[in-house]
Specification:
two-stranded antiparallel ribbon; 152 residues; alpha+beta; Beta-Lactamase
Length: 152
C-alpha cells in the first residue's frame, strides 16, 4: 500500500514514484478533490484557516491580509488567542470548546480579532470540526464586517 501524499510505500518503507497514468481512479478523484479545495482555499476572498492545539496550522492569503500579515507563513504557529480581541476571548473559547467536545459546528457569530499592528477588526465567522493531521482542530471562515458596523 503506498501513500501518494508522501511518496512512500507503507509496507517496505521505500519511496515510490508514480506517474499520472499509474493512479487508480480513487486516487485520482482524491487528488482532484484536494486540488479543488486547495485552489478554493487560496483564491477565497474570505479568511479561511485551520486551528489545532490552539495554534494556527494553516491560513490563506485573505486571512493574512485580514490580520495584517505580509504572508500566511508569518501567522502559522501563532497562538490563536493572541489574535482574538480580549473582549471576545472567553465567548469564542467557549464556542471552540463546544465545537471540539461535541464535534458540532459553530453557527455564524460575530467577534473581534486583533491585527498584528494591534488594531482591532470586527468579523463574522463560522467554524466546523476538522482534523489536522492526527490532531483535532477546527476549520474557520471569517470576514471583515468593520465597514458594515461603521455604516450602522
Amino acid at each position: 500500500m503506498s501513500s501518494i501524499a508522501d511518496g512512500t510505500n507503507a509496507e517496505s518503507g521505500r519511496a515510490s514514484v508514480r506517474g499520472e497514468g499509474d493512479l487508480r481512479p480513487g486516487d485520482r478523484a482524491l487528488r482532484d478533490s484536494e486540488d479543488r479545495f486547495r485552489r478554493l482555499f487560496e483564491m477565497s476572498l474570505d479568511a479561511i484557516y485551520i486551528q489545532s492545539g490552539g495554534k494556527l496550522a494553516l491560513i490563506n492569503r485573505a486571512g493574512a491580509k485580514l490580520l495584517g500579515a505580509e504572508t500566511p507563513e508569518n501567522l502559522v504557529g501563532r497562538c490563536v488567542w493572541d489574535l482574538v480581541h480580549p473582549d471576545w476571548r472567553e465567548r469564542i473559547k467557549e464556542q471552540m470548546g463546544r465545537l471540539l467536545e461535541e464535534q458540532t459546528e459553530i453557527p455564524l457569530i460575530q467577534g473581534k480579532y486583533l491585527r498584528l499592528d494591534g488594531n482591532s477588526v470586527d468579523v463574522e465567522m463560522i467554524a466546523t470540526p476538522c482534523a489536522y493531521g492526527d490532531r483535532p482542530g477546527a476549520l474557520l471562515l471569517a470576514r471583515d464586517i468593520t465597514g458594515q458596523r461603521l455604516a450602522r
